[in-house]
Amino acid sequence: MPRNSRTMVVYLLHYREPIGDLSRPRMFAQHYVGSYWSESRLTSHRNGTSGVPIVAEFHRRGIPFVVARITPGGKTLEARIKTRGHFREYCPECVAVPRNGRLWGDLVRPDGVR
User: Fold this and answer.
1) CB distance 83 to 31 below 8 Å
2) Any residues with CB less than 8 A from the CB of 68 and at least 6 apart, and which?
3) What residue spans define the domains of the chain?
4) Which of 17, 36, 98, 108 could potentially form a cystine with 41 if both were Cys, beta carbons 3.0 to 4.6 Å apart?
């Protein structure tokens, strides 16, 4: 199937524990944003074989993740979301009422629940 006939999605991974210097807000991570055509990308994240250094470090430390959020979109949207940052505010695992915003749209969990 050609790539342009598939729906690409942008996803937010929430790791169960942060890594880095927790005393400095800009020096730790607990989320990763990416995009995929196929869910095999998530499998490669789980296996630590995706080639993403921060994901590999979480895997090396044995810290699991959940897919906290997905939205239709591709690399351009992924880049815009990464530039904006503040992933915690949009993460339903971190806050009781996550922000939606223009980039993420309405909250849609991976299981399709709004």
Assistant:
1) no
2) 12, 13, 14, 31, 91, 92, 93, 109
3) 3-104
4) 36
